[in-house]
């Protein structure tokens, strides 16, 4: 690893830690509110809870697409253009993940299984196409 990578690594771990704590607190909130049966949950909180799953899926999609739109140096070329044929495994993985999410969502009404299926489809298709 170069010296620049070592300098960024602690900041990256700090960011991962903050995101992990935030995720944990978001998942803990319904349990804390359910522990008080006499207290009804406000409508805004119920609407927020229903929107978290789709928002998480969209965040995963944006995070996987974002690197392709970064400048790759030289005459405004994007990373997709610079990658050329090497972008195929990444884009095919995204397409496989989206298809898996839609199919599993129709069978399983929750959001957890479609998310896991999408992550699995992305990983498997990316690994298979990257090996070619």
Word description of this protein:
This protein is mainly alpha-helical and about 130 residues long. It folds into two domains: about 1-40; about 50-130, no CATH class. About 75% of the residues lie in helices and about 0% in strands. The chain is built from five helices and no strands. The protein has helices at about 5-35, 45-65, 80-85, 85-105, 110-130. The longest helix is centred in the first third of the chain and has 32 residues, at about 5-35. The chain starts with a helix and ends with a helix. About 10% of the residues are buried. The mean pLDDT is about 75.
Question: TL;DR of this structure?
Answer:
This is Branched-chain amino acid transport protein (AzlD). This protein is mainly α.
Q: Number of helix segments?
A: 5
- Overall tally of structural domains: 2
Strand elements, count: 0
Mean pLDDT: 75
- Beta-strand percentage? under 5%
Structural class: mainly alpha
In one word, what is the shape? globular
Summarize the helix and strand pattern as letters. Answer: HHHHH
The stretches of 5 or more residues where confidence is low (pLDDT under 50) are: none
Overall helicity: over 70%
The Cα radius of gyration reads 19 Å
| End-to-end C-alpha gap | 27 Å
InterPro entries: Brnchd-chn_aa_trnsp_AzlD
Protein name: Branched-chain amino acid transport protein (AzlD)
Organism: Chitinasiproducens palmae
Pfam families: AzlD (PF05437)
